[in-house]
């Protein structure tokens, strides 16, 4: 027989923190394997032994052989009609959706321009791939993952949305997102700010900061061996340059060792939002290269 449990429930049951249960699973103290919908499965005998250790009466097994005449009718999962939107071959993917709507309740922007994570899952299940690819509302999602976090069945909603976005022809990607990706790949940042302008701005802001409140400050660019590599959201040098100074003031007060790269300094990866895996990888790879080139130990992505 198998005992099926959720980490939170078991933590409550045994009066320990949920991280303790996770650690026990990781270390093998609890011999459990992952089951569907964030549940774990363990041998009934192991569960009984655990109860004995804690001096408690075992619950009934949730799954496993049922007494004759009390067999539960198994529910056949609905299978995806189209494999195109399936982000990975996990057989329990959206097939397990209960249509409970918890994802929609958790989404901070559900209802805006028709976005609704439950609808996305249902449409994918029903094979409405073309409708999803053509829908502009799917691009309103910020990929905050609150829907996925709330889903009791662990449906990979964000991966699904990314997959759908990746299927839209690139020249048809709405708004500035794809343009930002192209700019970033060609010019090192989403807004295509030239290197000379960026360096000039950093120098000027550094001088201002030294005069205003941080005597002796100068903006550290390409400092080899600095502890932290700081990336920048191109929106800041473009439209709100003074905002960068808040970070710098904190570093100054903390005596932190940090630097900004003169090349490929963009901290916002729109390859992530547009579902463009190749661009995502390239942009991340450049940051890794900067880390290696400047021999930094830590990375700050203010986004
Ligand atoms: S929360 Fe999960 S199970 Fe419920 S409707 Fe959304 S995707 Fe389906
Ligand atoms: S990831 Fe998208 S759909 Fe999910 S909660 Fe965030 S905005 Fe809503």
The major pleated sheet works out as: 3 strands, antiparallel
Number of helices: 14
In order across it, which strands form the biggest sheet?
1-3-2
- What is the H/E string? EHHEEHHHHHHHHEHHEHHE
Oligomer: single chain
Please report the distance between the alpha carbons of the first and last residues: 47 Å
Task: Tell me briefly what this model is.
This protein has 14 helices and six strands.
Describe the protein in words.
β2 and β3 form a beta hairpin. By secondary structure, this protein is mainly alpha-helical. It is globular. It folds into 3 domains: 2-54, Orthogonal Bundle (Multidrug-efflux Transporter Regulator, Chain: A, Domain 2), CATH 1.10.1660; 94-168, no CATH class; 177-300, no CATH class. Strands 1-3-2 form a 3-stranded antiparallel sheet. It starts with a strand and ends with a strand. Residues 63-81 have low confidence and may be disordered. The chain has helices at residues 7-14, 18-27, 44-54, 102-106, 117-125, 129-134, 146-150, 157-166, 177-187, 195-212, 235-239, 244-254, 270-274, 277-294, and strands spanning 2-6, 32-34, 39-43, 228-230, 258-259, 298-300. Bound molecules: iron/sulfur cluster (2 copies). One iron/sulfur cluster binds at residues 106-107, 109, 117, 141-147, 157-158. The site of one iron/sulfur cluster has 14 residues, from α4 and α5.
